[in-house]
Amino acid sequence: MKEKWKKIFSKDHKLMYAGYVADDKPFGIGTSYYENGNKCQEGIFDDKGLVHGREYYKNGNLRFEGVYTHNKGYGPNYPTFGTCYDEDGNEIYYGELKIKKIGSMGLPRVIVPEEYGFISPRGEPVFETLTWEKDDDKPQGTYYVKLRGKKKRQELVEFLERNGFRCEEDDVTSKESTISSKYPMKVSLDDRTYGHLHNTTCSAAADASRRTIPAEELMFVFECSFAFVIVRAK
What we know:
By secondary structure, the chain is α+β, with helices and mostly antiparallel strands. It folds into two domains: 4-129, Histone H3 K4-specific methyltransferase SET7/9 N-terminal domain (Single Sheet); 132-233, no CATH class. It has four helices and 17 strands. It has helices at residues 150-162, 175-180, 200-208, 215-224; strands at 4-9, 15-22, 25-33, 39-46, 49-56, 62-69, 78-85, 91-96, 98-102, 107-112, 132-134, 142-145, 166-167, 185-188, 193-196, 212-213, 231-233. A hairpin with a 2-residue loop joins strand 4 and strand 5.
């Protein structure tokens, strides 16, 4: 099981996790995020969740910081020693937490302090429900990037050109039109060119091809992956 650093995005292109992974799930130092963009958990993960770190309420306030026990049975890792806070950020408990396993499968539950509630933060990202794939060790073909506003499009154009890309110019495509267009940008990994789509029909076809990715994911490929790997949801 080889670990590597990566970002994982949801099907609607929201960041779920940034950090080390194994088998495309959190494993090692990293941070997971709620759908609203706030931190959910951060620290050191294993295959059952956090083993040391912090977890937060969905409103951004700290919920717990401390150590966890690796759960060899059913359910996630559970907190064993640390500091607990309420949703307003007030400290409510410090010390060893008491756990009781309930139900036929022995799902862990915190009974001291009882205010802790559910082991897993409500609304946390669920990684095992997503299926991820890699095209190849070195992906090929064309990808599409949706961006709003000239500033963001110009930033991506400048980023691509710094990484050896050039505009695929023709009668209707230029660097200027790519920056000002309202349609998705087109990025070819085969010949390192960029451009843009020209109408709504092409944009719909790009979505259907499952090769539309967020700009952050494309930039992550260049900045953080020597293997040049793009990861996308099925």
